[in-house]
TrEMBL record:
InterPro entries: RNA_pol_sigma-70-like, RNA_pol_sigma-70_dom, RNA_pol_sigma70_r4_t2, RNA_pol_sigma_r2, RNA_pol_sigma_r3/r4-like, WH-like_DNA-bd_sf. GO terms for molecular function: DNA binding; sigma factor activity. This is Sigma-70 family RNA polymerase sigma factor. PANTHER family: RNA POLYMERASE ECF-TYPE SIGMA FACTO, RNA POLYMERASE SIGMA FACTOR HI_1459-RELATED. It comes from Silvanigrella paludirubra. One of its GO terms (biological process) is DNA-templated transcription initiation.
Length: 198
């Protein structure tokens, strides 16, 4: 059996094997990416059972739609695109996927109609000290709606390029900008609220 470190997932030969649904080709991908898919699912806020189920759904879906993969991006991008789409569907099915974002209302509460502070931000030093607590950051990340969490994680944690994030999440550049803005504001609001209680 071929060592996975020697495999070239972008080669024409390998992609042909995938489209022909050869067991060894799929097995190589499963062995290489299953753990990453599982950890990413956990990072998106799913519990262990749901993360395992999502990982299985990704592989089943890939097997069903592999003929749609044209090889214009890396197979990993295609696989993780499936994960993010299935994660959104999974949330909707569980009725946990949150509705419209309320960050505009949150920001409006901070200013009066003349633009003056009604609710000033907390002292920056206190904010930074509180934000250094990993538990606070993790809890605030968990509280984000899935779409915001995915975009923020890809941009700020995995440091993906905007073009790749837009492709993975099926977003326009302007939508991505709005989502990142909302995610950062929601996180700041959450961290501030927790720090004030410290």
């Amino acid at each position: 059996m071929q060592n996975k470190s020697n495999l070239n997932f972008s080669s024409t030969e390998f992609l042909t094997q995938l489209r022909d649904k050869e067991h060894n080709a799929f097995n190589s991908l499963v062995n290489t990416y299953s753990e990453q898919l599982y950890r990413t699912s956990l990072g998106l806020g799913f519990n262990r059972n749901d993360s395992r189920e999502l990982t299985q759904i990704v592989w089943t879906t890939l097997y069903e739609i592999i003929s749609e993969f044209k090889g214009k991006s890396h197979i990993r991008t295609f696989i993780f695109g499936i994960l993010y789409n299935k994660a959104s569907e999974f949330r909707r099915e569980q009725k946990k996927f949150l509705g419209p974002d309320v960050v505009d209302d949150i920001m409006n509460e901070r200013f009066d109609h003349k633009g003056n502070w009604v609710k000033p931000p907390i002292d920056p030093e206190k904010f930074l000290l509180g934000a250094e607590s990993n538990q606070i950051i993790e809890k605030c990340l968990e509280s984000l709606p899935l779409k915001l969490k995915m975009a923020f994680a890809l941009k700020e944690i995995e440091e993906k390029k905007n073009s790749e994030i837009c492709e993975l999440l099926n977003l326009s550049y302007s939508n991505l900008g709005v989502i990142i803005y909302r995610a950062k504001n929601r996180l700041r609001e959450c961290i501030e609220g927790k720090v004030k209680k410290m």
